[in-house]
Amino acid sequence: MYNENKLSVSFNLGGENLVDVNKNIEKVRLSKGITRKFVAKKCGKTQQWYWKVEKGLIIPDAVNLQLIAKALEVDVKIFFENKLNDTLNTKLA
To answer: The HTH cro/C1-type domain covers which part of the protein (predicted)?
Structure first.
């Protein structure tokens, strides 16, 4: 999905359901109490780069999504969950 104000990685999973990967990355990070600085360092990137990923200003490729998932110690598929709050409650609790 294209937004004039920012780039956002959204996926239509059928019907009306859209997943904003960048928002899910941020939700996972916050749920684990991990800083942006930590994730950026683990990915070998700058804090500014990682901040732009979470804000939807940069669309990470598959390799960088894998790096972020590894830094957060989650499966990359979690970033594509439509109902992430439910998933976080069960998988990360």
So the answer is: 25-79
pTM: 0.75
Residue 39 lies in a domain: yes
5 belongs to a structural domain: no
Q: Which residues pair with 18 in a beta bridge?
A: 12
Domain that includes residue 24, residue range: 10-91
CB 87 within 8 A of CB 81: yes
DSSP H/E element including 10:
strand 10-12
| Amino acid identity, position 77 | K
Residue-level pLDDT, tens digit, the chain, 93 residues: 444 444 445 555 444 445 789 999 999 999 999 999 999 999 999 999 999 999 999 989 999 999 999 999 999 999 988 777 666 666 655
